[in-house]
Amino acid sequence: MRVFVTGSTGWIGSATVDELLRSGHEVTGLARSEKSAATLAAKGAEALPGDLDDLESLRRGAAGADAVVHLANKHDWADPVGTDRAERAAVEAVLDALDGSAKPFVIANGLSGLVEGRAALESDASPAVGPGSDRGGSENLTLDAVSRGIRAVAVRFAPSVHGRGDWGFVTFLVAAARASGVSGYVGDGTTEWSAVHVSDAAHLIRLGLESAPGGTRMHAVAEQAIPTRAIAEAIGAALGLPVTSIDPDDVGDHFGIVGDFFSQTLTGSSEATRDLLSWSPTGPTLIEDIAAGAYTGD
């Protein structure tokens, strides 16, 4: 298949492009800079100039491909409303281009905010509906497009998609530990996170693109529940720093923007995903990655 990928030079996108190329697919990546275009060319992929605000490029990329993987997001913490608005407009543009084509369209989402008090299941519908909701309600918008003749699939990522080169949440935790001289966890550290290695996440995206039925929600979760204290302890050991509890009232000052997320239990099951697609994660665990120096430059 010729696959059009947004976010193609990002953290998960880069691994996804590599996975698709290794599996014999052709890739066109949305590239918002000459550097991104050169990165794609070096891998043997094509580049389509544009970004999430360039709706015509999105339509052109989707129309010229056999399948679409949408991984890009502005992640502008200073303008969440604008980020959500851009996400919905981008998805609408892709859906318009794919209308009635039966082509697969895989869209990214996270586990945050899906349910409270238990691990999220693939059967749990996202509560984000409509333009004013989280990510502009793009997951539901996409899955509803099955009725428009599109093989729409959602992939929900664990809060930590980890590996060497990751610049996500764990990177912020390491930076906070270095800045403060202690590796912290919130309260008693019993909140839990799910995690998945980036190579396993990319493998799942390919499997879903190739064979998941329309309407499928996939969970990119290799480890369902890692206590946040265990994550802090692994960071402390890797950096040679003491480990301590951070009062919930002080998480913003200590952790910065990642504090609210580290205070929550963000977990999901992937049992249905594994059964449906015979997905079996093989990458290192999050704690193994931290211990091996993936986040400390070792």
UniProtKB/TrEMBL annotation:
Gene3D superfamilies: NAD(P)-binding Rossmann-like Domain. It comes from the Bacteria. SUPFAM superfamilies: NAD(P)-binding Rossmann-fold domains (SSF51735). InterPro entries: Epimerase_deHydtase, NAD(P)-bd_dom_sf, NAD(P)-dependent_oxidoreduct. GO terms for molecular function: aldehyde dehydrogenase (NAD+) activity. Pfam families: Epimerase (PF01370). One of its GO terms (cellular component) is cytoplasm. Residues 3-81 form the NAD-dependent epimerase/dehydratase domain. This is SDR family oxidoreductase. It comes from Solicola gregarius. The lineage of its organism: Bacteria, Bacillati, Actinomycetota, Actinomycetes, Propionibacteriales.
